Amino acid sequence: MGTHHGVKFATHPDMFIYFPLDPSLTIGTKIGDDTNDIEMMEANMIIIRKSNYTKQLLKWSLLCAFTPECIEPIGAKLSCQDYYNDHLFEDGRCHREDQSLMNILLHNMELKLIREGFKITPHLRYNHPSKWGNRHSLKRKQKTNANIIQLYGKNINGKC
Questions:
Q1: pTM, whole model, 2 decimals?
Q2: Which of 41, 35, 28, 11 is nearest to 109 (CA)?
Q3: Helix axes 98-115 and 52-65, enclosed angle (nearest 10)
Q4: Which of 64, 80, 155, 159 would be a feasible disulfide site paired with 94, CB 3.0-4.6 Å?
């Protein structure tokens, strides 16, 4: 699900020095009255199936995490105070650290896969499963007896 604000809104501009957001993702896009930004996905729980693509996501995430100027640029602030003031759509109003990073990496990777001919539904699309309304079907601290393999299957190595 989306956060109802943009990636550029909640990402310090210096993070884009390390991980530029493909401009074709944002040109002509609109979130409310904000233009040229894409909606940031929530940072809740992520289930990642082991693949070469997810290895790349994790590799770049770790490299950024070990580089203080990347994950937490000088002057970055987590809180988006005065969210509803006149500067609502100003880029870099706050910085979501790992959430910003994962959004940039995932959006860029999805675009790359589409350009390579993969048939995927990117998170930006209205018909992506994250927009089906089943969000938060597992509540915080809720226990489940469901077998993860039954829910999500095995990878090519026969493991979760």
A1: 0.70
A2: 41
A3: 150
A4: 80
Q: What is the DSSP letter of 2?
A: E
| Residue with the two structure tokens 């020095």 | 17
Q: What is the pLDDT of residue 35?
A: 62
* Tokens standing for residue 47: 């289930």
Q: Distance between alpha carbon 9 and the CA centroid of its chain, in Å?
A: 13
- The pLDDT confidence band at residue 23, using thresholds 50, 70 and 90, is confident
41-73 exposure pattern, b = at least 16 Cβ within 10 A, e = fewer: beeeeeeeeeeeeeeebeebbeebeeeeebbbb
3-state secondary structure 13-40: CCHHHHCCCCHHHCCCCEECCEECCCEE
pLDDT, one tens digit per residue, over 117-154 is 988 877 776 666 666 655 445 455 555 555 554 555 55
User: What are the residues whose beta carbons fall under 8 Å from the beta carbon of 81, sequence distance 6 or more?
Assistant: 94
Token pair listed for 81? 């105070």
Between 81 and 24, residue with greater pLDDT:
24
CB 15 within 8 A of CB 95: yes
CA 149 to chain centre: 24
